[in-house]
Records
---
Amino acid sequence: MIKAAQSKDTQEWLHNNALFRGFFRDKADNENLCQLIVMLKRRIYRYQYMSVSYPRFFETYIEHHATMIEMCKKKDADLAEKTMKIHMRKVRDVIIDSLAASRNLLI
């Protein structure tokens, strides 16, 4: 993922990002969590391409992912959840800004 970010390789980034999400799904010994991850993946599918349209945010995404992994290793669910929420808000903001910019181009 870091290599893809450094080279601004969005295809490789998407591939590695899917592996990242899949890692949590595969390691979760919790069927409810697995189903939630699958449902969220389906809901965000079309938006993930928009979020990687701006590779300048890859470094931020990597920091979020690294923190989530570290918090899981430490079994700090609260901080892992907090980091996930921060990450989701950042990605949401990138997508909203992207849509707003596109809309302004059309007007």
Note: The chain is about 85% helix and 0% strand.
---
Amino acid sequence: MKAANMRHIPIFVLTVSLCFSTSLLWAQTGSGDVKRDFHGFREQFDEVINRSSDDSAAWERFMFPKPERLPYWLFSLPSDKEKYTYVVAASDPGMTAQAAKELALLRAQIMFGLLSATHVGHIREYYATERDREVTHFFTEYTRFTGQIQAYNEQVEVVRQHTTQYDETIILARIPIRVHAFEANVSPFGQIEAGLFSRLRGIGNRMQLEEHLYMEVTPERGTAGSHYQHQYAMINRIVNTSTTIDDMLITDLPALNLRYSILEGDQQNMKTNRSDKDGGVSLSNGFWHALVACMLSSMVDIAHDGSIHFTQLNDISDLMMLSMSRELMQKTLISNMPVMFVDNNKLYLYPFVQQIIE
């Protein structure tokens, strides 16, 4: 994954290696080879700089003087929720209207599948070593979510639609509960897999944080579905987000600084009805990323309320002290559409898991 700031790293490494190789080439070959290396480096340098400029342009085109005001229907449950299953989905920023709606519809199908039944497998490890009085710590978490797409695109009805100033399409979609219940008993036409990965690495007083979020849909053999991938990566605040459909790159975005708000009256009402302010996800990289990250993280937290398998290992030798602890957890979650809350450009979700199956 490439990101705006990460692209500067290869420039430094390449400069060092080429300067070193140039001095060898002067000694071992003629100046013609050196000129060829120089021109090759210059062309690669321009390519890297141009890509970096493209990332800056991508960030600048989302700059607006005021935050995007999100519509009221995102923050309350529909009145006919006993008849329909509802979901909220959205496209990525910077898309054309038609492509954005198509992507939002595909993601609505994914959300229907995840709310129906999500199998959650989670592993958390802490690992520490000490060598020559220097301690290295690793704290790693990985969660895999799996589900099935069973709602056809034609069954999904878009009830509300909102286009943001960042060219995102946000939709409220529904299917009748009787249809949703029937589809849960038929063969799926797509497999959903999502994952959250985080690693905190510390050596002495130096720290590195790495986070990944991915979501993938693989169509069943013989169906006409699309192969969908969405990936988010953050390494020490360097961010890249991308979406591909059938191996075609749809969006590829660096770290953004998008801002969202809601009506002040709705905000005050939500604050008085919500006491838990933990677990919010920044909206700066887009509404869809915040929604998915917040929903998956909330599922992990809720699933942890049940049984967890815990192991610990300690081994001391002359060269290294090893300490390792591991948590394992597997659950199935059945959920409703989450009710959202926005505060200080962060998205929060009210509890939405209906049932936990050990």
Note: The first strand starts at residue 68 and ends at 69.
---
Amino acid sequence: MKKMSENEQQQVLSLALESLQVQATLLENQISELAQEIRTLERDDELDKLDAQLRAIRADYAYFQGFVDADFKRASYYD
């Protein structure tokens, strides 16, 4: 199996971080919509579950952010 180059690792890391950002945004939107509903035990339970998922995504993001090379510039299709 071929070992990934540093550039390839940074590209994969960049994509993973973008994916985590999108997932977090979607969860934040769900939480916002749910928070506007009439208060019920089911709604509160669902908010707790979504909040736990969001905390996990943010923890993953913070962890993987530690591996990012500050000098890495992801290639753009428009360059």
Note: The longest helix spans residues 6-35.
